[in-house]
Amino acid sequence: MATMDDYLEVNRLNWDERAAVHAASAEYGFDRYVTDPGHLSDVVRFDRPLLGDVTGLTGIHLQCHIGTDTLSLARLGARMTGLDFSAPALAVARQLAADTGTTIDYVEAELYGAVEALGSERFDLVYTGIGALCWLPSIARWAAVVAGLVRPGGRLFIREGHPMLWTMDDPRADGLLVVRYPYFEVPGGTHFHEEVTYVDHDEPLASPATIQFNHGLGEIVTALAAAGMHLTMLVEHDSVPWNPLGDLMEVGPDEEWRLREGRERLALTYTLQAIKG
Predict the structure, then answer these.
(1) Strand ranges (DSSP E) for 112-193?
(2) Which residue(s) pair with 229 in the sheet?
(3) What is the phi-psi region of residue 253: left when phi exceeds 0, alpha when psi lies from -120 to 50, beta otherwise?
(4) Helix (H) or strand (E) holding 95
């Protein structure tokens, strides 16, 4: 069984395989980016009212995967760099940028090596999208990387899956929400075996093992404060841009998924912003 020492390689194999699956999927919709120069990812479109104007900002998208959010931020006027640990994902991201005539610098590096790979205090904006933090064993080390990358007065902007969402068991027929997995960061993380990813695909993944790590909201905020980041926004949402709970969910006209009943029971995502003092 995989251990804490090899979480990185276990997860990299899984994400290397996901790259082609995601790029070919209707959910990511690569053709829309090529045919419509104004098209934005659903994630960035949701973020826009809270994100504000990014025109002219130098931005780094950490754990950028295949680059649809990175491209969307570039289309909003930011000068973007994307960083990811998966070479196949970055190859897809670079091709998408080329196909859309967009200048984006993509760098292959593991998250905790980002400052060494990119340089310190280079960016006005550090951006992280949904489903990123759960792959990192230490939220304190992540916060230190964020603080190392951003210039004084620059900001972190992140929308993430809520740590309560990551604790949920599989959907139950009676509609009850059941906590199964850790809310707080625990050594060694939680081991999963999932032969499908969050988009529709026919063939099972050949590398289905992952090791994931939850981090409570208090742990995240405290880690950022300890790293010299000042919290300016924390908004919890009752929606998420994919279906994590099966028949308990329904999709709205904004392409966000919400609980069919009792939406007040569970925050599904949150948006956080912090400024470097």
Answers:
(1) 123-128, 150-161, 190-193
(2) 276
(3) alpha
(4) helix 87-99
Mind listing the pLDDT tens digit for each residue in 87-123?
Answer: 999 999 999 999 999 999 999 999 999 999 999 999 9
Q: Which residue, chain included where needed, has tokens 């409570």?
A: 216
Q: Which residue, among 72, 17, 16, 3, has the nearest Cα to 42 in the 3D structure?
A: 72
In the chain, what is the greatest distance between 2 CA atoms, to the nearest angstrom?
Answer: 52
DSSP 3-state assignment of 76? Answer: coil
Task: Give the domain CATH number at 191.
Answer: 3.40.50.150
Nearest alpha carbon to residue 66 among 125, 124, 106: 106
Q: Is 112 exposed, middle or buried (0-12, 13-18, 19+ CB in 10 A)?
A: middle
With beta carbons less than 8 A apart as the criterion, state whether 124 and 275 touch.
no
The CA distance from 137 to 139, in Å, is 7
Structural domain total, the chain: 1
